[in-house]
Amino acid sequence: MRVERADLYVTDLTLNRPFVVSYETYTTMPSIFIELHTDTGLTGWGEAVPDQHVTGETIGTVHTILRDELLPEIIGQNPLEIARIHQTMNRKVFANGAAKAAIDIACHDLLGKATGQPIYQLLGGKLHDVPPMAYVISIVPPDQAAREAKHALDETGYAYIKIKLGGPDLREDIARVAAVHQAVGPDIRICVDANQGWGNVTTAARAIRALEPYEPAWVEQPIPARQIHGFNALRNLTHLPLMADESLTDSNDLAQFIHDQSVELINIKLMKSGGIHPSRELATQAQLGGIRAQIGSMLESSVASAAGFHLAVAHPAIESTELSGPLWFTNDPGNLTYNLPRAELTDRPGLGIDIDESVLHSITQQHNEVTAP
């Protein structure tokens, strides 16, 4: 099997409500879809959702890297040789995880279709059910956060709550958690995510100490991404479990966390790490180092979300997921389905989803066909 050409679609997915984190408010989510065409007639779908605050990429840089650098290198190669594909991409460009993830996911989709197996089967088989998802509450006023949490648990089937923090007012961050805790009661798991928004170890320590009465299951990314050693200081100041997200991109970052034993959990995202193949390696490294793992999301469509779920069910270190993107979008071209608090993976080959090309074309802002140089 050889890749003959690729289609590249630059799109904008519309959110059904604003998604507010410490560094940005999103009403739409730019995304790039690729379709790899092979000489056997099989095609594979992939997706890139960059975030300049996390992966250092923008929709423009991902488009350029895919169109001009990575996809031309993949044309003519066997997409089933995924380790070799990653070697090729890594020789061509450094980092650029979201761009590489699009190709990785499409190759895994092709591998599944070529063998007639769902991706999870090719990753060792399904070890457990799809882990349950949290309902994610954006940075909103405390009373609104409390109402959303109560509705999510009582009316929509979610099992636990994740609260976005790191806003400009630390007191409101704490009030938001207190309001949710009071609304849902002490028996419901709550976790919090500052998305680097507390700025430094001193402020993060103040925030975490103030959160201790509410016993969040973990505190995610309380400090800026590159302050990896700051987790050491925080570890000595609180008993609450810490999770690294933006600080965890590759095996070198994880090796530091394992050495320091400064976090209990990591949030693996295909867009940060370059797709299923390197994310699986991270999950195994975490398992060997005694660190638990979650598969997270940049708010991705059914394509990348399905890819994350396939990895989640096939790896013993992955105990939770946050792949809720399809539930936020009004115009997702894929058809991944959910029975909350879990997604429903089928046993169909590859990603196991269909792409409605009429929807895809309706949201496409730019289309390119990449062929052999």
UniProtKB/TrEMBL annotation:
**UniProt keyword annotations, A-Z:** Isomerase, Magnesium, Metal-binding
Matching SUPFAM superfamilies:
Enolase C-terminal domain-like (SSF51604), Enolase N-terminal domain-like (SSF54826)
Domain of life per record = Bacteria
Does the record's keyword annotation contain Isomerase? yes
- One Pfam family per UniProt: MR_MLE_N
Which metal ions or organic cofactors does this protein require, according to UniProt? Mg(2+)
Q: How is the cofactor bound?
A: Binds 1 Mg(2+) ion per subunit.
Family that this chain belongs to: Belongs to the mandelate racemase/muconate lactonizing enzyme family.
Q: What is this protein called?
A: Dipeptide epimerase
Q: State the organism of origin.
A: Gulosibacter bifidus
